[in-house]
């Protein structure tokens, strides 16, 4: 009895009165106070980073110096050129019969679904029903979920590695679902909402595909790329937490295959291992494919932005960010790709060493 | 307030938005916080919204997505591992109504994703497809979250569980 449920929920909040007497002033204050809070946070985090640096320097002794953090790259503008959506290294031809619509902050642009290529900028929200959505990100986009929901109050989701893909031209991409997966099988009927994402980490672009798997695959095959960020792995200089997720022998990700470390000495060893691998994979030789199992390594770091106010430190923290490194396994195409740029060969020995550092050597 | 009409909009709709926030979070403080955060975004987009948009729909959508994202956020340190304890202050609006307090406690016990789907389905009356579109996920995800929410409520009992038991409702 839906009406009964709704009445219960309505009654539960009907007596709630806001605690804030002047909400307008509160909203304006909140907007302004963010900047002040970041200045305070700057002092705290700068101190923490400095102390962490001292600890790492002490523990590493005369080891190699910590390299500077991966540089911030602005997101690329989206353009429509000769019947194709062009953004970053990606060129996506607009399918015949489809039209391109640009989203804008505060507007809900989709009055019709399907056959729309929606361009979404960082400040706008998208419409949730466009057949193809091309979204640019200010930060390196997070790899598509690959979420294993462990459920229950107080438990965190375990994120499996995304499905790796090499786009024509060599740009790495990460998929949420395989094109032949059950949830993307064609013929599901009109009430079913298809949803898959293709993340291009180097270009900071996410393409959402609300079409079935075979159609998605055909669309992806029409994409071309001109990657600009191949090379050694770009890694953060200072990492506060590192998390490795390893699938078991059946390819399943579970809580037992996830380990988080905060020890600066071990984190230093992880970064050193990654940096030691300098055999880069040129765009023409890249080969990561959806059939390969993969590891997922997350490196948390602080992100700083230049200040525009003379009253503030030169750099203020904009929060924290994770740089993802995805390692595809197997003899045929072992690659490590950093979301911040860079792709290197990463063989079985390196994988074993990485797992050992996280205490996951038995997997 | 430099933007024409924004102050009037907030004054008129703030209580309703806070109540929506309380449903989405199961918590009075978090609900008001969610409403204010969303209104900051509405303020930024006000020129467009005031002219041609629907500011309340926009604000509710921002709130919904924020509540949904909180369940999938990467920064686990930002997510309370357990729902924070709710203390009924003197004169608390819930204290006078036992049923209301129990309903909110039941909502609070649900994982965020399940709570958001439950509210959208049974309070906002959206269809499975509309919810999937609004949250940017598959209908399968919506179905599974709704099923789990109802199963959790039935396990813990209370008025919401009774409502599901009394009726022949299936999630969708």
Strand tally of chain A:
19
Mean pLDDT of chain A: 77
Structural class of chain B: mainly alpha
Beta-strand fraction estimate of chain B: under 5%
Strand percentage of chain A, roughly?
25-35%
- Shape type of chain A: globular
InterPro entries (chain B): RNA_pol_sigma-70-like, RNA_pol_sigma-70_dom, RNA_pol_sigma-E_actinobac, RNA_pol_sigma70_r2, RNA_pol_sigma70_r4_t2, RNA_pol_sigma_r2, RNA_pol_sigma_r3/r4-like, WH-like_DNA-bd_sf
Family (chain B): Belongs to the sigma-70 factor family. ECF subfamily.
Keywords (chain B): DNA-binding, Sigma factor, Transcription, Transcription regulation
Domain RNA polymerase sigma factor 70 region 4 type (chain B): 103-152
Please explain how this structure is put together:
The complex is a heterodimer of chains A (363) and B (172). Chain A has helices at 2-14, 23-60, 213-222, 264-276, 348-357, and strands spanning 79-81, 84-87, 90-93, 99-102, 116-120, 132-136, 147-148, 158-159, 163-166, 172-175, 196-200, 205-209, 224-225, 241-245, 258-261, 294-306, 315-328, 335-338, 343-345. Chain A has five helices and 19 strands. In chain A, the strands form four sheets. Chain A has a seven-stranded mixed β-sheet, with no helix packed on it. In chain A, strands 15-14-16-17-18-19 form a six-stranded antiparallel β-sheet. In chain A, strands 1-2-3-13 form a four-stranded antiparallel β-sheet. Chain A is 23% helix and 25% strand. In chain A, α4 (264-276) runs antiparallel to α5 (348-357). The termini of chain A are far apart. With 363 residues, chain A is an alpha+beta fold. Chain A is globular, with a radius of gyration of 23 Å. Chain B folds into two domains: 1-79, Rna Polymerase Sigma Factor, Chain: A, CATH 1.10.1740; 98-172, Arc Repressor Mutant, subunit A (Orthogonal Bundle), CATH 1.10.10. Chain B is 70% helix and 0% strand. Chain B has helices at 6-25, 28-44, 46-52, 55-72, 98-109, 112-123, 128-135, 139-156, 159-166. The termini of chain B are far apart. The relative contact order of chain B is 0.10. The model of chain B is unreliable at 72-96 and 167-172 (pLDDT under 50). Chains A and B meet through α1 and α2 of A and α1, α2, α3, α4 and α5 of B.
